[in-house]
Design goal:
Helix content: 40-55%
Strand order of the largest sheet: 1-2
Number of domains: 2
Number of helices: 13
Strand content: 5-15%
Shape: globular
């Protein structure tokens, strides 16, 4: 947390893990700024200032430079904006320029409602999750659709998928629902226990990960992990764990059939590094390099 003293004292998150549901208003404003940047409505400099205003919960429309105090406020906001770099990453290009990428990684629902899904991880690592496999699958597809199209219809359907309704949500809040879920997806993708599912090589032809498709639920049911309804009702962590187990079983079956790690990796569209821990001829493979 960063403590800022202007006319009031503010304690504001300096990274995504510090956000809680208590920061609801700031998070909604922050998501609005991020969307405007991704839609090309803000420059990078304007994004940085908008991030600071959002975190201070200041409405920019009500700010006017009419006195020396206001000029000082603007100067302080600019200084604060230089500290709040957690929502983006700057990547240097070969020509000396830089590209800005939005970075959101969240392990909790910051917009909890009684009708909506719960997801939170305690400091002790205990998980509280009601997000079901079917919700995850549908919401992943709708998140991808909204990312590509910015369609209000996709946004409303995403909200309905995760909360059962879109009533009572402003558009800005629905945008925050989208970025919240996008942040959860990023966090899930980085968990080491699911690396076999979300590795880059598992995306054919540079396309989206196949895990968001309903076919994964049918595959688990067909492989004996439960009825279709039982799989759909699994919490997302149990569902992803089952997909990991199914992937490992596929690797072992192919290894038992005599395929080498490189062949298994090619057949399952996985990196060799994800195959090696699950085959018995690791040493032979390493000596053959």
């Amino acid at each position: 947390m960063i403590t800022v003293r202007l006319k009031h004292e503010y304690k504001i998150p300096s990274d995504w893990p510090e956000f809680t549901a208590e920061h609801h208003g700031q998070f909604v404003k922050l998501c609005t700024a991020i969307e405007n940047f991704e839609k090309g409505l803000l420059t990078f400099g304007q994004l940085k200032v908008s991030i600071a205003l959002a975190m201070l919960d200041i409405n920019p429309d009500k700010m006017r430079i009419t006195t020396g105090d206001n000029e000082k406020l603007y100067e302080n906001i600019f200084r604060i904006s230089e500290l709040l770099d957690f929502p983006f990453v700057l990547q240097s290009n070969e020509d000396g320029s830089s590209t800005v990428y939005i970075r959101i990684s969240l392990f909790r629902n910051l917009l909890p409602r009684e009708c909506g899904y719960r997801l939170d991880v305690s400091p002790a690592g205990l998980v509280d999750c009601t997000l079901k496999a079917e919700q995850y699958v549908d919401a992943l597809s709708l998140t991808d659709l909204y990312t590509r199209s910015r369609s209000d219809e996709a946004l409303v359907k995403l909200c309905e998928t995760l909360y059962g309704t879109s009533e009572g949500f402003s558009r800005d809040e629905m945008v925050a629902v989208y970025y919240n879920f996008r942040g959860i997806l990023d966090w899930l993708h980085k968990l080491p226990q699911y690396s076999i599912l979300f590795s880059r090589a598992s995306r054919k032809n540079g396309g989206e990960s196949p895990l968001g498709l309903s076919g994964s639920i049918f595959s688990l049911s067909k492989s004996g992990y439960g009825t279709l309804k039982e799989i759909q009702d699994l919490d997302v962590f149990t569902y992803l764990g089952a997909l990991v187990q199914m992937s490992v079983e596929s690797i072992r079956q192919l290894a038992a059939a005599g395929l080498k790690p490189v062949q298994i990796a090619d057949k399952l569209n996985l990196p060799v590094s994800e195959v090696l821990p699950h085959v018995t001829d690791n040493d032979d493979y390493e000596h053959s390099l």
